[in-house]
Amino acid sequence: MLNYMTVKEAGEKWGIGSRMVTLYCADGRIEGAEKMGNMWLLPKDAEKPEDGRYKKGLKDGK
Q1: What is the mean pLDDT of each successive set of 10 residues along the chain, which is 62 residues long?
Q2: Most CB atoms closer than 10 Å: which of 10, 23, 33, 37?
């Protein structure tokens, strides 16, 4: 049994587009992701990275 999933499978699992998953891989935000030729392979147990954007209107300014 393979211990990897494709970008498309990760996108479906996390509810985001495959392009976003590819950008996460290219930025090094998914631990254990490996590029094989022209496609990325992600560990089956990889977790979706936190959204890097910040929320507006927070009272403490964080």
Answers
A1: 88 95 95 94 94 70 56
A2: 10
